[in-house]
Amino acid sequence: PAHRSRLEHHAKRLRILLPDSTPELQTTNSHEWQLMRVSVNAQSREWIVEYRSVGVRNEAIDAITLPAPRWNQRTNGCKHGDWGAYQQAHQSAVAAGCDAALLIHEHAVVDADRATPLLLDEDGTVWVASESDGGVDGITAALMERELKQHGFPVSKGRLNERLVARCHELILVGTGMGVCRVDSIDGESIGSSTVLSSIAHRILDQHFTD
After folding, report:
1. What is the rounded end-to-end Cα distance, in angstroms, of the chain?
2. pLDDT tens digit string along 95-140?
């Protein structure tokens, strides 16, 4: 339901009419985890359903920084389907011997190549990039926002600027196809010394999958 709701919300923002029909979703007898991408062709108004195997990583990773792709204000933060720049960012990270790329706009982290950054500040606040800055509306990130508040962590949306990142206790990346990954270094520089956020985020995601 959360994915369907987001699809309808983003389609409205992007002025795309969704098909009247419901997408045909297949189940598999395989015990392998799979990621399913449901999208719509804006011209033909046809559903597109794609499947691929997915391995949730749940580990410490290294990241590089790259300029964030930018669209207009209506499009920023949407699941708009134009993922070429994100795919290229991931390829650049792999070529640099890293696992992920943090996307930067005006000296602030606004997104990652295939996950949402969450930052634990020194005062205990968890920060998430706002959609106006280009942060994509992530389902896993939204789950984390709700559950972290229940666990006593205040969550705020704003700018993950250089100063905030430099002093943070921990930076993690969360996503449906990535799980929860703690960022150990950015551009070769170690970051954070805590594992509090990643530990509780692991438990939240494990419980979500169990439920």
Report:
1. 15
2. 999 999 999 999 999 999 889 999 999 999 999 998 777 666 788 8
Q: Between vectors from CA 187 to CA 91 and to CA 199, what angle results, nearest 5°?
A: 90
Number of other residues whose CB lies within 10 A of the CB of residue 23: 16
Position 127, amino acid = W
Task: Please write down the HEC assignment for all residues of the chain.
Answer: CHHHHHHHHHHHHCCCCCCCCCCCCCCCCCCCCEEEEEEEECCCCEEEEEEEECCCCCCEEEEEEEECCCCCCCCCCCCCCCCHHHHHHHHHHHHCCCCEEEEEECCEEEEECCCEEEEECCCCCEEEECHHHCCCCCHHHHHHHHHHHHCCCCEEEECEEHHHHHHCCEEEEEECCCEEEEEEEECCEECCCCCHHHHHHHHHHHHHHHC
Q: Which has the closest alpha carbon to 145: 130, 133, 160? A: 130
Query: Alpha carbon of 85 to those of 133, 152, 184, 200: distances in Å?
Result: 17, 36, 24, 31
- Over the Cα atoms of the chain, what is R_g? 17
Q: What is the pTM of this model?
A: 0.85
Torsion angle defined by CA atoms of residues 157, 163, 168 and 172, in that order, rounded to the nearest 10 degrees: 60
